[in-house]
Design goal:
The protein is 31% helix and 35% strand. By secondary structure, it is an alpha+beta fold. It has 2 domains: 1-49; 52-151, Immunoglobulin-like (Sandwich), CATH 2.60.40. Keywords: Cell projection, Cilium, Flagellum, Membrane, Transmembrane, Transmembrane helix.
């Protein structure tokens, strides 16, 4: 009789421990999913109010291109240097690094407020081809992208 009570007590304790572990794992999973959904919602909200437009792009020399990027959205774009810029002949875009050795790009401002226009300067390691169409694509750190195609004169 005493051994039955001890056995049942051990089983009850083991069951309580397992239920506690299961509840903890379930809470952790639900909490992680909730945090992920919340972060995704914030990111999507940022994308909805972000709207950039390349107003104009042209070459100023055979190895330099100037791009004017305007924020026509409602949200400020922070840390432009962490954005990605692609440039190349139409259909052959290559990533261009920020503020380094050529090919590279620099900007006149680090943030872009609504209504503001910023100048991006692309320095190339090889000259542009005359009468060739080139495309510049700007992608923010949140994934918003805009592009512009121009002809080298």
């Amino acid at each position: 009789m005493a051994s039955e009570i001890i056995s049942e007590s051990i089983m009850v304790i083991a069951t309580v421990v397992l239920v506690g572990l299961l509840a903890g794992a379930l809470f952790y999973t639900v909490s992680t999913m909730s945090t992920t959904m919340s972060s995704f919602t914030v990111l999507q909200a940022q994308r909805l109010v972000t709207d950039l437009q390349v107003v104009y792009a042209t070459n100023t020399s055979s190895t330099q291109v100037v791009v004017y990027l305007q924020n026509v959205g409602e949200a400020t774009v922070f840390d432009l240097g962490s954005s990605q810029l692609y440039f190349g002949p139409q259909g052959q875009l290559q990533p261009i690094g920020y503020n380094g050795a050529a090919p590279s790009w620099t900007t006149s401002a680090s943030t872009l407020s609504p209504g503001q226009t910023v100048q991006l300067t692309i320095t190339l390691s090889s000259p542009l081809s005359q009468n060739q169409y080139y495309t510049v694509m700007f992608v923010t750190s949140t994934g918003y992208q805009t592009s512009y195609t121009f002809q080298v004169t």
